[in-house]
Amino acid sequence: MNKELTKHLAPGHSTCAGCGIPAIVRTVLDATDDLVVVVSVTGCLEVTSTLYPYSAWKVPFIHSAFENGGATAAGIDGALKALRKRNKIPAEKKIKVVVFAGDGGTYDIGLQSLSGALERGHDFLYVCYDNEAYMNTGGQRSGATPFGADTETTPAGKKSFGKKEKRKDLMSIVIAHHIKYAAQANVAYLPDLAKKAKKALELEGPRFLLVLQPCTNLWKYATSEYVRIGKLATETNFWPLYEYENGVYKINWATEKPKPIEEFLKTQGRFKHLFRPGGEKVIAEMQKEVDEDWKRLVNLVEV
Whole-prediction pTM value? Predict the structure, then answer.
């Protein structure tokens, strides 16, 4: 592998076959030439890249607990400012603080510390790799899990069709903190992610990237399929690519003829129960939700 592509994260970690998390990490960190300090919240990335006594990290790295990724980033930001004030770090030496966390540590357990760090205006980039459940602990539902999905804690069966609640609108929550930049990306569209990461890393203050990361384990698909399935998420408008910058929304990918949500759902075992008799009602509800969310986003862009 090209050494330039592994200057931040080395090969040899233990992420699953077909996992896109390493591609997300490398794409984000390779978007800057500045020094970086990485905070990794407990989750898939942390446990697979730091198998004691080894580490895949080639940069300063801090393992944060599930609930305090934002607080850890805030502490590092405060420490860097204090060291600069004491002339311990030259003014021209740029250091970026980057947090990587899954949806469990972002949507749910770590939301309070993320919110606090955003509200206080700390200088860091927070990257959520969203695989839509607690994959590190066995595939339980999270606030990011879609309506209708089969998980270990929302099993589909005779009395249930899977998760009954709709996923949390995290982007709107983050943007409500009046930050300068937030963007939704997809591991299946790495050039788009690279552009967003570069823009985010060049800014100051709190910035946020929400990146879709299909998971072969709970989503239940062949390990070679994550790019195709990721693209279907965007091609069906299930996962739009867009950004918010200084109050302005911009859609980065769109089509006049989006594919029906079934094209995305049928690729994954977590939705196979919806293609049995009775599941058509749930699929129709999901399509309605996708259409409404897309219309809402278009309206925000046109304001």
Answer: 0.96
DSSP state of 157: E
Q: Which residue, 287, 273, 239, 281, is CA-closest to 154?
A: 273
- Average of per-residue pLDDT across 68-97: 96
The single residue listed with the structure tokens 């069966």 is 157
Q: Which two tokens stand for residue 153?
A: 């804690």
- What ranges do the domains of the chain cover? 3-302
Residue 167's nearest CA partner among 154, 182, 177 is 154
| Sign of CA pseudo-dihedral 117, 119, 121, 126 | positive
Return phi, psi of residue 36, to 5°. Answer: -130, 150
CB-neighbour burial class of residue 235 (10 A; exposed 0-12, middle 13-18, buried 19+): middle
Residue type, 256: E
pLDDT over 60 at 229, yes or no: yes
Residue corresponding to tokens 């599930």: 66
At position 78, the amino acid (one-letter code) is G
The alpha carbon torsion through 32, 25, 224, 1 (nearest 10 deg) reads: 60
CATH topology of domain 3-302: Rossmann fold (3.40.50)
